[in-house]
Write a structure and sequence with these properties.
heterodimer; A: 273 residues; alpha/beta; Rossmann fold; 6-stranded mixed sheet; 4-stranded antiparallel sheet; 8 helices; globular; B: 394 residues; alpha+beta; 2 domains; 6-stranded mixed β-barrel; two-stranded antiparallel sheet; 12 strands; 58% helix; elongated; binds adenosine-5'-diphosphate; binds magnesium ion; membrane (chain B); transmembrane helix (chain B); Macrolide_Exporter_MacB (chain B); cell membrane (chain B); transmembrane (chain B)
């Protein structure tokens, strides 16, 4: 495989707060500089009258341009946390600020806008539209941003070239390998110049080599574009590539290497017992 | 999201599921097709009957004793020839008034026998009815005055009795009495099941003698113009009421007949359209059903779109447009097929069919409406899907 061309320059100048130059890996110093700030997040599901507590009080702060791995056993609440951070879901209790904005003050429409503007998603099972060409799959977030077709296609093409798929623009996901599909998904996550990419087990369905390619892409995205990456995984070697690991168990944060290193950088630690 | 974008997405979704989209449209196509064809047939029937009535002759008023009600037995007539003379004086122009005495009688030539409508009438038939001659002459005043045994034949009677032979001057036997044929009418067709080509006209005086009665069945009056119909009708009725106090007479005009028949056939057309509309409704239910299946099937897609920034409204619009597109494309296909079908029916069968603009516009409007109506429930379900639940669905 030929090495992919460099990622496009981050052109996000539409949101003023974005202009603050982030040095990848350097933790920002104040709350307004955080990509995420969570205080005492809980999420309970009600199933036939029985309450399931998926998250039992999670507090954390993730700065702009950080690269974080969330690890933990199956059922520990990793996906639930990702969905909350991605504004796909609302916490039962607690405060969540995304880019400094308390999401509880946003209605569903503003929340959809927030997702569209600032967050890119990568899923374990890719979640591409199977019968839609790669280019249109990648351009989809821009459709909901009201970007004109010609510009959408140009930006989607650039994003696909950035993940090394410039030769696969018109291929449908069904005609692609798993590794290629996940790279299409990454192109879709970065086409809108997000501040954060949330990746839930992005290598879970891939073999080692393709998994490594995907990780390399995410790392480059983080290093070159200053996009914060929050990655869920249960593979230690994948987690080891992140500068910071957050260990989750039974809906609580068991260990946060960022907190230990920074000496109380987060608003409150989820550690207990 | 722009509407053009939503439209593009909807077209794409329908294209991807071509077979299913086609089958779903099928219900709508059948519904619209039946609306267009049935309304065309109903309208065609109405047009045909109205043409027939107009073909009777223009501006005719038919005066009969008693009250005309559908299905009632005819009232015993108390009108006779002196009343016809009286009506003539009231009308002023004798040539605008003629008379009818009717009886079904066998008519025979040699061994050929047909059952015909024997009508006793007078020399004023051409002044009142639109009844052109093919050969010979009409009945004359002298025929009536001298009670001659002469006859003018309807074209079908003549064809059955004489075939291709010219009947003028030949003999026919009516109810055992011999008549000489003096005239032959042009073919005029049937009106209300009255086969006018099966009539045999003889002088009214001769008919009264033959049948054995001195009453008459009806007086027919022709107004000089459409505006004169109603005043003349009132004048004749008033004059008869004055002559026979306490008796009832009816004067039916062509306009009234047209109105009544038009109403009845209009109702018929409405009923046909309603039946067809039900099939359109069933088509709509099919659309709703398939859309619901589609929403369930595409749960993951909907969740993904929401994750990428689609608002509930975007999803709603997308699915609504899909539904409306399904029904309007189906509607257009149904209209094309319906118009084609109506033209075919018109061409190859005796059933008349007339395509009306309103049925086409209505069918299209209703199919679009069906799309909105039956698309709303599935579209709302899609719009309300929780993205997390949708994304977790495998
Ligand atoms: N929609 C839901 N309804 C009920 N329980 C749920 C739902 N989603 C997740 N859970 C429960 O919440 C817990 C955490 O799930 P999840 O966040 O998916 O864990 P992980 O991603 O770490 O495997 C699990 O016990 C799971 O069964
Ligand atoms: Mg999970």
């Amino acid at each position: 495989m030929t090495p992919p061309p460099p990622l496009p320059e981050d052109t996000a100048a539409d949101a003023g707060e974005d202009a603050a130059g982030n040095v990848p890996g350097n933790a920002p110093g104040n709350a307004a500089e955080s990509a995420f700030e969570a205080i005492g997040l809980t999420r309970s599901y009600r199933l036939d009258g029985v309450s399931v507590d998926a998250l039992r009080g999670v507090s954390l702060r993730i700065g702009r341009g950080e690269f974080v791995a969330i690890v933990g056993p199956s059922g520990s609440g990793k996906s639930t946390l990702m969905h909350l951070l991605g504004c796909l879901d609302r916490p039962t209790n607690g405060v969540l600020r995304v880019g400094g904005v308390d999401v509880s003050t946003l209605d569903d429409i503003r929340l959809a806008e927030l997702r569209n503007q600032t967050i890119g998603f990568v899923f374990q099972s890719f979640h591409l539209l199977a019968r839609t060409p790669a280019l249109d799959n990648v351009a989809l977030p821009l459709v909901y941003r009201g970007v004109a077709r010609a510009e959408r296609r140009a930006r989607a093409r650039a994003a696909l070239e950035a993940v090394g798929l410039g030769h696969r623009l018109d291929h449908r996901p069904s005609q692609m390998s798993g590794g290629e599909q996940q790279r299409v998904a990454i192109a879709r996550a970065l086409v809108g110049d997000p501040q954060v990419v949330l990746a839930d087990e992005p290598t879970g369905n891939l073999d080692t080599r393709n998994g490594a390619d995907v990780m390399a892409l995410l790392e480059r995205l983080n290093a070159d574009n200053g996009v914060a990456v929050v990655l869920v995984t249960h593979e230690p070697e994948v987690a080891g590539r992140a500068r910071r690991q957050i260990h989750v168990r039974d809906g609580r944060i068991e260990l946060d290497t960022g907190v230990v290193a920074g000496g109380g950088r987060a608003g409150g630690s989820g550690e207990d017992g | 999201m722009r509407t053009a974008e939503a439209l593009r997405m909807a077209v794409e979704a329908l294209r991807v599921n071509r077979l299913r989209s086609g089958l779903t449209m099928f219900g709508v196509i059948i519904g619209v097709l039946s609306v267009v064809i049935l309304v065309a047939i109903g309208t065609g029937a109405k047009d045909a009957v109205e043409r027939e009535i107009a073909g009777l002759g223009s501006n005719i008023i038919l005066v009969v004793p008693g009250q005309v009600t559908l299905g009632a037995a005819p009232t015993q007539s108390r009108l006779d020839l002196s009343d016809v003379a009286y009506v003539r004086r009231v009308v002023g122009d004798p040539s605008r008034v003629t008379v009818a005495v009717n009886s079904g009688e066998p008519v025979r030539v040699g061994r050929n026998e047909v059952f015909a409508t024997l009508t006793g009438t007078d020399e004023n038939v051409p002044g009142v009815f639109d009844r052109p001659l093919r050969r010979g002459r009409y009945l004359s005043e002298t025929d009536v005055d001298t009670r001659r045994r002469v006859a003018v034949l309807g074209s079908e009677v003549a064809a059955k009795l004489f075939g291709d032979v010219d009947p003028i001057g030949r003999q026919v036997t009516v109810a055992g009495v011999r008549f000489r044929v003096v005239g032959l009418y042009e073919t005029v067709g049937a009106t209300f099941g009255v086969a006018r080509d099966q009539e045999v006209h003889i002088p009214v005086t001769t008919a009264q003698r033959l049948i054995g009665m001195n009453r008459i069945n009806a007086v027919a009056v022709s107004a000089s113009g459409p505006d004169e119909i109603e005043p003349l009708r009132r004048r004749v009725l008033a004059a008869l009421a004055e002559r026979y106090p306490g008796e009832r007479f009816s004067a039916v005009t062509q306009t009234q007949l047209l109105g009544t028949v038009g109403t009845v056939l209009g109702m018929l057309t409405g009923v046909l359209a309603a039946i067809a509309a039900i099939s359109l409704l069933v088509g709509g239910v099919g659309v709703s059903n398939i859309m619901l299946v589609g929403v369930r099937e595409r749960t993951k897609e909907i969740g993904l779109r929401k994750a990428l920034g689609a608002r509930g409204r975007d999803v709603l619009v997308q699915f609504l447009i899909e539904a409306v597109l399904l029904t309007t494309i189906g509607g257009l296909a149904g209209i094309v097929l319906g118009v084609g079908g109506a033209l075919l029916i018109q061409a190859v069968s005796p059933v008349p069919a007339a395509i009306t603009w309103w049925s086409i516009v209505l069918a299209f409007g209703v199919s679009a409406g069906v799309g909105v109506f039956f698309g709303v429930a599935p579209a709302r379900r899609a719009a309300r899907l929780d993205p997390v639940v949708a994304l977790r669905t495998e």
